């Protein structure tokens, strides 16, 4: 800037930033903000403390890039700005989450996973956004990220002014709560930076901490992944620790409790993205039905979804836990008994635990 008069270059970059936000909206994103590549020293310090406490569990990718995760310009050399975007995911007409959680014979699947794999949807749109920037005549170095890569996406979104970090560590906004996906485009362009959000709006509320079934939110803004139901049912490859199995209830893929109780999610908005519509009736399906799926059925029905990533074996492991916590109905018991000799040792172990739960429950009845 020279005084109060923007230079020609500054005018051009401001116009491009405006175009990027318009193009992002046309591609289905619900909000977009532009932040600096410098996430500040606190991001690296918090990451280091979390990793040092081993609270990332088996998620080695969280540690493999070291502090580069907190330093975008080191992770992707040449990065000058981080474009942070969000896309609402709540599927219209999905059965109420509370009703599913209250039904011990139903399978609860985190609402973000009811439709098409968000990694595919957002990555495709981010690629198209980058191509539009290039088509406008800009030599662009870029890299797109959607959750699976080592990026501190919430910190980047906060720095860009997209929202604030809730005590459950997810991004929150006053207008849409937290039921949305985040994506990032690291770019080499000197775009004008949007002001960060300076005020948080959680106040004294601790509902997300109090509701967590496994007490995974060990302090405000700190989650011990090793205790988190989402980690246990999605990221953990082996046996689910026995101490957590009764606490998981009927949550067979992920957990939304901390979001469902959050007052700001009264303002959550249904997604207009057709790809996030419910597939295979997963919003309201019984544990017994899902446990009966063969590997072929699992692959056919869940191809293209986020659930497909965990594979049939872990899917059955999770459902066995859910069935162990379910009412001791003839259908539940028969379903478990049919997989007592499953080829997978992992599945057999969790089926045996589930049957023991029912036997203990029956023995304690008057």
From TrEMBL:
- List the PROSITE patterns hit by this protein, alphabetically: 4FE4S_FER_1, 4FE4S_FER_2
Instruction: Tell me the gene name.
Output: queG
The record places domain 4Fe-4S ferredoxin-type at 193-222
Q: Where does tRNA bind?
A: 237
The record's annotation in NCBIfam families points to: tRNA epoxyqueuosine(34) reductase QueG
Matching SUPFAM superfamilies: 4Fe-4S ferredoxins
Alphabetized InterPro entries for the sequence: 4Fe4S_Fe-S-bd, 4Fe4S_Fe_S_CS, QueG, QueG_DUF1730
> Per the entry, which co-factors are needed?
cob(II)alamin; [4Fe-4S] cluster
The record's active-site residues are 147 (proton donor)
Protein's job: Catalyzes the conversion of epoxyqueuosine (oQ) to queuosine (Q), which is a hypermodified base found in the wobble positions of tRNA(Asp), tRNA(Asn), tRNA(His) and tRNA(Tyr).
**Can you tell which superkingdom this protein's organism belongs to?**
Bacteria
Q: Binding positions for cob(II)alamin?
A: 69, 147, 171, 182, 230, 255-256
Which reaction equations make up its catalytic activity? epoxyqueuosine(34) in tRNA + AH2 = queuosine(34) in tRNA + A + H2O
Q: How is the cofactor bound?
A: Binds 2 [4Fe-4S] clusters per monomer.
Molecular function (GO) terms listed?
Answer: epoxyqueuosine reductase activity
Protein name per UniProt:
Epoxyqueuosine reductase
Pathway assigned in UniProt: tRNA modification; tRNA-queuosine biosynthesis
């Amino acid at each position: 800037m020279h005084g109060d008069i923007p230079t020609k270059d500054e005018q051009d970059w401001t116009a491009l930033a405006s175009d990027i936000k318009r193009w992002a909206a046309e591609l289905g994103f619900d909000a977009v903000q532009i932040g600096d590549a410098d996430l500040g020293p606190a991001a690296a310090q918090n990451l280091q403390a979390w990793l040092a406490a081993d609270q990332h569990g088996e998620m080695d990718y969280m540690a493999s890039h070291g502090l580069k995760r907190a330093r975008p310009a080191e992770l992707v050399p040449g990065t000058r700005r981080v474009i942070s975007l969000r896309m609402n995911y709540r599927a219209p007409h999905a059965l109420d989450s509370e009703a599913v959680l209250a039904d011990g014979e139903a399978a609860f699947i985190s609402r973000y996973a009811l439709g098409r794999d968000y990694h595919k949807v957002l990555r495709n749109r981010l690629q198209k956004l980058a191509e539009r920037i290039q088509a406008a005549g800009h030599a662009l170095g870029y890299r797109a990220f959607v959750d699976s890569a080592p990026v501190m996406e919430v910190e980047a979104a906060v720095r860009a002014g997209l929202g604030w970090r809730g005590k459950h560590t997810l991004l929150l906004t006053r207008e849409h709560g937290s039921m949305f996906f985040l994506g990032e485009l690291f770019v080499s362009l000197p775009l004008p930076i949007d002001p960060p959000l300076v005020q948080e709006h959680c106040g004294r509320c601790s509902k997300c901490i109090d509701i967590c079934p496994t007490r995974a939110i060990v302090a405000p803004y700190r989650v011990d992944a090793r205790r988190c139901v989402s980690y246990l049912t999605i990221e953990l490859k082996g046996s689910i620790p026995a101490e957590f199995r009764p606490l998981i209830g009927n949550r067979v893929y992920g957990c939304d409790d901390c979001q469902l109780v959050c007052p700001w999610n009264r303002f959550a908005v249904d997604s207009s993205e057709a790809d996030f519509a419910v597939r295979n009736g997963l919003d309201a399906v019984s544990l017994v039905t899902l446990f009966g799926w063969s590997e072929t059925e699992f692959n056919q029905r869940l191809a293209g979804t986020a659930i497909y990533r965990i594979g049939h074996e872990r899917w059955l492991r999770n459902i066995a836990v859910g069935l162990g916590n379910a009412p001791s109905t003839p259908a539940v018991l028969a379903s478990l008994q049919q997989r007592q000799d499953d080829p997978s040792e992992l599945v057999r172990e969790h089926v045996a635990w589930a049957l023991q739960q029912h036997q203990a429950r029956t023995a304690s009845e008057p």
